[in-house]
Amino acid sequence: MRLSKYFIPTLKEIPSDALIPSHQLMLRAGMIRSLGAGVYSFLPLGYRIIKKVMDVIRDEMDAIGGQEFHLPALNPLELWEETGRAKDFGDTMFHLKNRPLVLAPTHEEVICQIAKNHIKSYRALPQIWYQIQMKFRNEPRPRSGVIRGRQFFMKDSYTLDATWEGLDKGYELHAEAYKKIFTRAGLKYFIVGASSGAMGGSASQEFMIESESGEDTCAVCDHCGYAANLEVATSNIPKAQREKESKEIQEIHTPNVGTIDELKEFLKVDERFLAKSLVYMQDKTPVLILMMGNDQLNETKLRAVLGADVRPCRQDELLMLTGADAGSIGPIGLQGFKIIVDKRLKGGNNLISGANKNDYHLGDIDLQRDVKVDGYYDLRIINAHEPCSKCNSPLRIVNAIELGHIFKLGTKYADAMHAYYLDEDGKEKPIIMGSYGIGVERMMACFIEQNHDKHGIIWNKALTPFHVHLVMVNSNNEKVVSVAENLYTKLQQSLIDVLFDDRDDVSPGFKFKDADLLGIPLQIIVGEKNVIHGNVEMKDRRTSKREIVELGKVVSFVEKYLES
Ligand code: ATP
Ligand code: MG
Asked: The pTM is what?
C-alpha cells in the first residue's frame, strides 16, 4: 500500500477528549474516529488490525472445534422476555421504537432457540458454536475509547452439552483457547475467579490485564499467582478471637457517636470487638448484616447469598423497623429480622453493637449466646496487604480491564426456553450451556495500552497492520526513488505486506515520526547515504536497533524476521 494514496488521517496533537494512551494513539494513528458517545468508525488502518485480531481468535476457536455462525443483531423482544433478561438488562439493552425488537447485547437466547428447535437427541451433542459479530449495549458511561463502546465486536461462543462433565470439558477447552489467543496476540494477562452476574450460572473466570484505567478491581498475589475479581476475592485476614469469658450484656451511653471510628475512639477498644450493623431488604424481609469494625460489605457477595433483588433499607424504613437511626442499630431485640453475619465474626463474644436506641450501644454481646444467627458468610471486601488465602503473602489490589470472560451457565436458558434433548434412556433433559466472550476492539486497545512508548504504538507480528514499513527518505533523489520502488515491488512479490511511504510532499523527519507513530515492527529506511553503497537501513521499532543490510538481501532478511 502506498502511503501517498492511503486514507490515513494522522494527527500531530493529542486529542483533548482522549484520556488514555490507547484512545489517543488510535485517533492519532488514523485508525478510528468517533461518531458519537461510544460509537466509532474504523478507518482502513484500524480495520486491518481488527481483522488481524479476529484472525487470531478465529484460528483458535476453529482449533477447538468451534463452528462459526452469523446471528442477527436484531432480536424479537419476545425472545428476551422468555428468559426474563429483557428486565435484567433494563436500560442497557437498546429497544427499537417502531417494532418490538431489541439490539442484542449478547446471544444466549438466539443460540438456545436454535438448539431447542434442532437438537433433539444426546447424539447431536456436544456442540461448540461461535460468531464474531456486533453487540450493542447502552453503556451508561462510554469512555476509554473503544474499550467501552455502545457498539462493539464480540467473539461469543457457546457450548451445548448433555452432561456436566461435558460442560467442564467445553469450559476447559475455552480456557486453553483463550490462553493461546491472548499469548499469540502478545497480551500480558492474568486470570481471575469472577462473579457470574446477570449471566447466571456457576463457575466463571475473567481474563484481565492490569491497567490504571481499568474499571474492574482485582486482588492479586505476586507470590503464588492467586488472582480474583474484588467482587469475589477472599483473604486470610484474622478472625474474631473468642475470649475465655463471656461477660453480661450491658448498655453503654454513646452520645453523638455514629461511625465505627468514633465508637472506637470513644470506647478505646480494638476494632475487632465492634460489630457494625447494616440493614437490607430481601423482598419484604429485613435482613440485618453484621460486619467486623470498618469492614466494608461486598454487595456482589451479598447478592450471591440473598438473591439479586436485595436492596439497602431506606432511612425511614430503618427507623420504623428498629426504632433507631443507622449508627445505633444492632442484633439484639429485633422482631421479624433475618440475621446474617460475616464469617470473620464467627465465634465472637464481648462484642459491641448498636442498641436499637439512638445514642446507645450494647456491650459484651456473645453471638452464640445472644443472637439467633441465620448464617455466617464471607461478605466483606478485602483490602490491600491482607494475607493471600492460598499462601499468606500480602495481596495487591489493582485496576484491571477485562479482555474475556468464560461462564458455566448450566441449564438456566434451557429451563427458561424449554430446550430439551432426549437422553440415552429416552428421557427429556435440559441442554447444559456455557458462554464465552472476548471483546475484539478491547483486545486491540489493551494491546496498545501495553505496547507503546512516547513516539507511538509498537505492534507485534501477530497484529501489525503491515509486515514492514518502507520509508523512502529523499523523494527528490532518483537513485533513492528507484531503489525504493524496486524494493516495494520485490517485497510484494514475496507476499510481504508493505506500507510504502512514497510521499513527496513531506519531510524525512515527518516520515520517521509517522513510522514510529503507526508502529509497524520493522522499518526499512531507504536513504541517500546507504543507497550509494548498495545498502538500506533496517530499524526495529521496539528496540530502535538499526542494522545495515545489502539491497540483495533485504527480502530474505524480512522473511527471516517474520519467521523468527
Ligand atoms: P464489563 O464488565 O467490562 O462491562 P462485561 O462483563 O459486561 O464487561 P461480557 O458480557 O462478559 O462483558 O462480554 C464479553 C467481553 O466483551 C468482555 O470481556 C469484553 O472484552 C467485551 N465487552 C463487554 N462490554 C464491552 C463494551 N461496552 N465495549 C467493548 N467491549 C466490551
Ligand atoms: Mg458490561
From this structure: 0.87
